[in-house]
Design goal:
The chain has no helix or strand. It is largely without helices or strands. It has a domain of about 30 residues.
């Protein structure tokens, strides 16, 4: 299970304190999902496949679990 995401986390820029609809970095001219400074926001949880922090199982490229045993 991944830790809960802090409430008020923006899905556009990843910062805490506002929501996507109020994101100051969102480019209003280009549409809903456009952010002026698009940065990859790592997954704030633990991978269900390798048990490492920062990515989902669907993005996992590891061949080993966190303890070194093969998957």
């Amino acid at each position: 299970l991944s830790p809960p995401r802090p409430s008020g986390t923006c899905f556009a820029c990843g910062q805490v304190g506002h929501f996507k609809r109020n994101c100051p970095k969102r480019d209003k001219k280009k549409g809903m999902d456009s952010v002026q400074e698009h940065k990859h926001v790592p997954f704030p949880g633990i991978c269900n496949r390798c048990s490492k922090f920062g990515h989902r199982a669907s993005e996992c490229r590891s061949r080993f679990k966190k303890d070194g045993t093969p998957l």
